[in-house]
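hey m, so remember when u said the tokens were messed up on ur end? i reran from scratch. heres the input so u can diff it against urs
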Amino acid sequence: MNSKSKIKGRGAQQNVHNRFFELSYEMRDDFLEFCHKEGEVADKNKTQYFNVFPKTIVNKVTSPDVGMAYSMNMYQGCEHGCIYCYARNSHEFWGYSAGLDFERKILVKKSAPELLETLLKKKSWKAHPIVMSGNSDCYQPAEQKFELTKQCLEVFLKYKHPVAIITKNALILRDLDLLKDLAKDNLISVHVSITSLSEDTRRILEPRTATIKRRLQVVKELSKNGIPVNVMLAPIIPSINSHEILPMAKAVSDAGALSLAHTIVRLNGAIGEIFSDWIKKTMPDRADKVLRQIENCHGGTLNESRYGVRMRGEGKIAKQINDLVQLARLKYFKNKVMPKLNTELHEQNKVGQMKLF
């Protein structure tokens, strides 16, 4: 790919049209040419933060095949820039593009800790694991500035409430002491996303994420401190990282992970256009092959929304991937089990301290 045309440090290379808007935004060639002649920068490629004010922070998950009942997101949009991210489409509901806007316009919910505490104190609330990062990574770069994830973990600890975390950022180790305190009562599990053992692959798929070396260190450090870790090989993309399933499984098992999960990539909504544009610019030699193989896993389309099928796919290529993951579990995760989170302590700690009677 021509370095002059590539937007460095980003996954998406364009802002695709928001399906909810009649008008669209376009960066015209004549404008780019004018900026070049004038020595001006057409696109400063800066990350912006915007405060938003939700009424609630915990969402009930109705999808039957995502493995969680409740989720919360302190941030909307994600600077990690993973090109395949299913959450990109959600940015359209906020009036932005699923492309570059998703990576550069980050919405910040500063009231998240207070909203969470209000929920956990309700008499009607019954403890159930709440997953942080059901949509965007709670340890993305914004967390260094705002520390909302850390504050929410303090709330979970105060009320002895179970919480799960999904992340691909080594910033989680900043909060190791909090995680250890939660783990004493079996109130925490961590799900680390690892999609390759190759830094070259990681850089183009997930440009602003922690390195693979650092992510493996996260798995090792958390496991060493008694914090249960599941590793998510998500997503598996045919002809990009599908050949790495067994080596990745061995590496994360050796690092201490207790279980392994996976999904096969699906490119719903605007993500199909974003991914197709990206791969034709980044991997032109294999772009058509990869896109055809993804379609092969989803009934001839990039867009897959059928519950029970969308995560695992169908067809020969999907079967090969799913069989390899099953073999990896048998080979590297035999007799390993993720513990069930403790939901028994919250009721007696609903006021922030244990009830006497």
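this time it looks ok to me. The chain has a mean pLDDT of 90. if urs says something different then somethings off w ur setup not the seq
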